[in-house]
Amino acid sequence: xxFIYRSFFILTLLFTENLxxxxxxxxxxxxxxxxxxxxxxxxDWVEFYNPGSTAVNLTxxxxxxxxxxxxxxxxxxxxxxxxxxxxxxxxxxxxAVIAPGVHTNxxxxxxxxxxxxxxxxxxxxLENITLNPTQKDHSRGRTTDGATSWSLFITPTPGAAxxxxxxxxxxxxxxxxxxxxxxxxxxxxxxxxTPGAEIRYTTNGSEPTAASTLYTAPVNIATxxxxxxxxxxxxxxxxxxxxxxxxxxxxxxxxxVSIFGDQIGTLLGGSQITPDAxxxxxxxxKQFKTEAVGEANKHGNDSWAYGQRGIDFITRDQHGYSYAxxxxxxxxxxxxxxxxxxxxxxxxxxxPFAPGNGAHIRDAYxxxxxxxxxxxxxxxxxxxCVLYANGQYWGVYDLREKVDDKDYTSYYYDQDEKYNGSPxxxxxIKTWGGTWNEYGGxxxxxxxxxxxxxxxxxxxxxxxxxxxxxxxxxxQSLVDYFxxxxxxxxxxxLNWNTGWWRGLNPLGDKKKWRYILxxxxxxxxxxxxxxxxxxxxxxAGPCDPENLPNPGGQGHTDIxxxxxxxxxxxxxxxxxxxxxxxxxxxxxxxxxxLDSMVAVIDxxxxxxxxxxxxxxxTWQSNVQLIRDFINQRCAAFSQAMIDCYNLTGPYNITxxxxxPNSGTVDINSVHIETFPWYGTYYGGIETxxxxxxxxxxxxxxxxxxxxxxxxxxxxxISTTFAANDVIIAHFKxxxxxxxxxxxxxNGDGINDVLYVLGxxxxxxNFTIYNRWGEKIFNTTSQSVGWDGTYKGxxxxxxxxxxxxxxxxxxxxxxxxxxxxxLMR
Length: 824
Description:
- There is one protein chain.
- The protein contains eleven helices and 50 strands.
- It is 20% helix and 32% strand.
- The model is unreliable at 1-20 (pLDDT under 50).
């Protein structure tokens, strides 16, 4: 019996191993730009092949792009591979069954690279294939169905037999000199590692072909040139293309972008095409930073009529070069990978093409104000640069982050277009003349209109109704959107440049409807009044947009007006204008930001003007018009606030804390850490104040001329100003002795010295030790604190130990020890 059992076990094991071995990964393409479609998209696909004579059920099996997570996606129940047949798996992120195959919950990037990991129901890996990049619309697969060898396929065969296998590409050429800036002509040698291959090259930015110039000797580069080379060998697919931009005897003070391709000149000439393109990015230090290949398309609408045109660039992993531009472009953001960027040419504020007073800066400037001010909006973060197209200078641009894109929402907020089976995990609506759903399909408009109808049909002062609105709408974002557009007197928004969105991934952020900034060219008295605002001068009322007759038809002005029924919203909305006028929109701040941005492009504008026309003096005059408008706006704004909202004042308010460095104060939406702080506020509306103590302190009381509610002993109060006022938030040391658990001796005047805090201490001994038990500080006086040094040297950030002995006035003693974190 033992022999029979053992034989049965061996037969079962052989059968199981044979079953596992039957189905194999047979072909894949991560370069599917023009090939097979499923669910309307051309996603990456993987073909599974069953060489056996019976169908194989893959229910319970797994597929993944990560060897360390082999069970990332499970084949749906009932999924099978027919005898001598194929199963197509689309790596789309949809997690669904959609003919002609099934869809995973992940996507692929062939240039990272990632893996194809096929596992059995226990999670045991059966196949683990590292993706090998191909050129666009090519695939890799077994030389013939089920074979052990792998080949390249110029014509993929998803769902059909692998035929016409090719050897791998000819080796990519190598240039002897790196892309970059040179003071004189350069001779560039080009080599190829594939024996017998010939190299063909171009110097006009076009893709080399078999008919391009044959390389026989080093190429002399005497002027700024994009040198592109490709290697060819009969019977072997041509190589990837090597592209280097050489800048000869040119100097720039800003980053430089080189874009090139067969039809880039045609695109920039005004043709609305989407050509393949390569791009290289060089920092202001003239060093090469990153490159990619993808496609370029038109950016801009009215501005497309100008000679200097904008470009949207999309990196395409399908080309096999890179899945993104990998560089930290923006100082205010940590993001370092960008599939999409915008190269904006000033748009309708372009100089010299824009009508009237174009300054080549308005849109980037206002987005930057919002970014610096941490407004509750999504901005197109900007970086000034110059552009070269196929080696030709094209002028001053601003490189922009693209907000209305799933890569943006995914990176910052974990809200992707497709997530765990839902193709609608972003709802993104845009109005430009008409309204459409960028993401989310018809459900996006349906959900927005349902919320809008609820707001307009219900009393928003009722707490239950307000709480419902608050659960779905980031109304503070709506307020900021109106504040920034009305303060800068935008004449082209709501019906032409409005975008709002929300994420539906419950594990992500930004699940309430919020607003983006779009084009703000028609601001500060410039361009055409497309929205029909009643006053486009610096005296325009902040309430003017509220009375517009629903521009764009999507209810934004109606919602603002209806939400004013709620006292929480009304107080925040009116006070937010005052808060911003005291901070982000204050004249000193606005002019400082404007001047700092102008200083960046100023050294580049003469070359820009030489290329496109106009005069440097006129450009400077146009920039001065913005400064003048800002000054006039600041001077008129207080009276405009009073007239709009029936306020009194304005009143000069000073905020202090006592003693210094004991805490912070919030006034409405403004967080104050540096004192004294000065602002302008109004009567006729409540102002909210909140005091927060630093470690080792506690709030004591308010001191002010106006009356605080509920009382001067509450750390959170409201008050209504009737005159100028000085507000002091008093803090006190808690009874007994206390040691803050952290301090930051970085010279900012806050938390720079560590003291023993507390009242009624008549004697103490306070000692600090390093990690080796060495005594590095000791004091017997509360007035002497530790500044984070030892023997005159600054100590590194880290955790230090303390011991404290104190005698209180009532005769009690304190003996304690603990840790202190030093942060620099």
